[in-house]
Structure formats: C-alpha cells, structure tokens
Design brief:
The structure holds 2 protein chains of 2 kinds. Chain A has 4 helices and 5 strands; from the N terminus they run αβααββαββ. Chain A is of the alpha+beta class. In chain A, α2 packs antiparallel against α3 and α3 runs antiparallel to α4. Chain A is globular, with a radius of gyration of 17 Å. Classes of the chains: A alpha+beta, B alpha/beta.
C-alpha cells in the first residue's frame, strides 16, 4: 500500500499523542533553503485538520511555487528578508496568506499551458504561476505599502476535521 | 531525492527517481540527469516513487528530454503517481513526453 502523501506518520508529526497543535504562522528568511521548514509544517497542519491527500499535495505545490518566486524574483536572491505565512481554516476551506516586503509582483493573467508540437518547442518558463492557478482553489494578490500579500485558498470536500 | 540507473536490454537505460522532485530534489538530480541525457540514447524514467513534482522538477525532466531528443534518442516516463501525473498534464508535458503505466508498453515505445 502506498504511503499517505507527505510520507510521514501523522502521529509522529503531532508529537505522539495529538496534544500539540501546529502553529498557524510560519516565518521564513528569504532563502530557498528555508523551504525545507515549510513541508513539515504543512504536514502537521494536514494531519491536524485531516486534509485530503489531493489538497495536501496542492498546498505543497502552490506554496513551493509562490515562495520560490518571491525569494528568487521579489527579493532578487537577497537572503536576509522575511516572509510570513498564516494558515486559517473555515468551513470547507483552508487558506494560506503569504506576506513579504519584496518588490511588487502581480501573478500573471490566467493562462493555459500552450500545447507544443514537439519537445524542442516546449518552453518551461512561467510554469509556476500556471500550476498555482490550476491547483489552487482561489488566488488573490494585493500590493501592500511595502510588499505584497498573496492569499491562496483550497477547498476540501468536507470541513477540515479536528 | 534519490536517483539510480539500470541498464536494460536494447540499449535502454532505466532511471529510477525516488522522493520529492521539488527545488531541493531537482538540484540533487539535475547533474546526473544531464549527464545521462548527454551520453545515453534511450531513457526510461521510472517515476513510480516520485511523491511530489513542482515546476523546477519539471525542468529536471524536460531539459534532459530535449537534450536526448536533439541527439536522436528518446525518453519516456513510467508510472507516475496520480497527483504527479496531474502536474505533468497541467503543464502539457504529457503531450510531448510519452507517459506509460506499464513497463512492457514503455519498452516497446523506446524501440
């Protein structure tokens, strides 16, 4: 049997007896290496709120694309800035809000992947935003006076369990 | 992210990927994937144990596929998990790099 997506035993994530709740905020430095801190946090939230595997996968995908874009393009690789991710759960949806102090960016207009006639014609650039738009339930960007706020929503089939 | 290879009959090189093909995973396999694409003609990429695929991981597949194609070779993907296959389809890569769910059909496609 294939392991549950995330690859970890939820019981081990939740400190053994489910007495420890996952934090609803994670702060990162603007370094790609910091992304390794995101996945255990999402694993813990997925276990605590009993999120479906597909939702968990979509969250990982959208957070990787969003955070890596902010770090590489918004902060232009400068490593000492901050990002904050806030998690909320309401009804049948869960939401992640990413705030930064990076240059303004606006995720591109919705586009569909353009079919290529051959492998040689295929250009992988811009796939990140495309994948976010495909896998997120909702995606909303707004400029802040000194940064950006990106809100990414996901719908679950049932209210996230507790 | 782990990568290993196995030489099969007919000059086919089976490349087994295992783990998360995210930014970190892509960095771990890119060099070996590019070396294989520059030296082998028929690549069977076994994706059964790839649990996650992001845009940087997609590049780790597309760029070697373009290299091997330019050299006159072929690449096919074997048995991605459903959510990983969803990423391949959403990015239209599945339309240019064949996906097979059975080893037997993947081997035929490489001949």
């Amino acid at each position: 049997m294939r392991a549950r997506y995330g690859g970890r035993d939820p019981a081990s994530i939740m400190s053994g007896k489910n007495t420890h709740k996952a934090a609803t905020r994670l702060t990162l430095k603007s370094q790609l290496a910091e992304l390794s801190r995101v996945w255990p946090w999402v694993d813990a939230l997925a276990a605590e709120y009993d999120l479906p595997e597909e939702t968990h996968f979509a969250i990982d995908l959208c957070l990787e694309e969003a955070l890596s874009n902010i770090i590489r393009h918004g902060y232009r690789g400068q490593p000492d800035h901050d990002l904050a991710i806030d998690f909320t759960s309401l009804g049948t949806s869960v939401t992640f809000v990413i705030e930064d102090q990076a240059l303004h960016y606006a995720p591109g207009e919705p586009t569909e992947a353009q079919p290529a006639n051959s492998i040689e014609e295929y250009r992988p650039g811009g796939l990140g935003v495309q994948l976010m738009r495909r896998f997120a339930g909702t995606l909303h960007w707004e400029p802040l006076p000194h940064g950006n706020r990106l809100t990414i929503g996901f719908t679950t089939a049932q209210p996230p369990g507790k | 992210m782990k990568i290993s290879t196995e030489e099969l009959d007919g000059g086919i090189t089976k490349v087994v990927l295992e783990g998360r093909l995210d930014i970190e995973g892509a960095a771990a396999v890119d060099l070996k994937m590019n070396v294989l694409a520059g030296s082998k003609m028929l690549l069977l990429i076994d994706m059964q144990k790839v649990t996650f695929l992001g845009s940087m991981g997609l590049r780790s597949i597309v760029v070697p596929a373009q290299t091997v194609h330019r050299r006159g070779g072929k690449m096919v993907l074997l048995a991605p998990q459903p959510m990983v296959e969803g990423v391949l389809k959403a990015s239209n890569i599945s339309s240019i790099i064949p996906i097979h769910h059975e080893l037997s059909t993947a081997l035929v496609a490489l001949k």
